[in-house]
Amino acid sequence: MNKTEELRKLSLKELDMQLEDALLEMSNLRIQHSTRQLDNPLRIKRVRRDIARLKTIINEKSQVNA
């Protein structure tokens, strides 16, 4: 099963918590990148896409519930 299918099974509250964690991780990665302490710069790309995926699923679920 891929990540999108797993995320769609979660509730809005759980998705919001994961989005908050991803945004915090992105902030930390940006700081590490600016101070040249980031080992794998591709993690920024991966986390950015995770954030977009989470926002899309949250938006879909909120439109269905509205």
Q: If you compute it from the alpha carbons, what radius of gyration comes out, rounded to the nearest whole angstrom?
A: 14 Å
The total of beta strands comes to: 0
Query: What general outline do the C-alpha atoms trace?
Result: elongated
| Spans where pLDDT lies below 50 across 5 or more residues | none
Mean pLDDT: 93
What profile does the largest beta sheet have?
none
Strand content: under 5%
Distance between the termini: 28 Å
Q: Helices and strands, in N-to-C order?
A: HHH
What is the overall number of helices? 3
Helix percentage: over 70%
Secondary structure category: mainly alpha
Task: Compose a concise summary of this entry.
The chain is mostly helical and 66 residues long.
Question: How does this model look, in words?
Answer:
There is one protein chain. This protein is mainly α and 66 residues long. The chain has 3 helices and no strands. The chain has a domain at 28-66. Helices cover 80% and strands 0% of the residues. Helix 2 (12-34) packs antiparallel against helix 3. It is elongated, with a radius of gyration of 14 Å.
What is the strand and helix layout of this fold?
Layout: H1 3-8, H2 12-34, H3 42-65
Keywords, separated by commas or semicolons:
single chain; 66 residues; mainly alpha
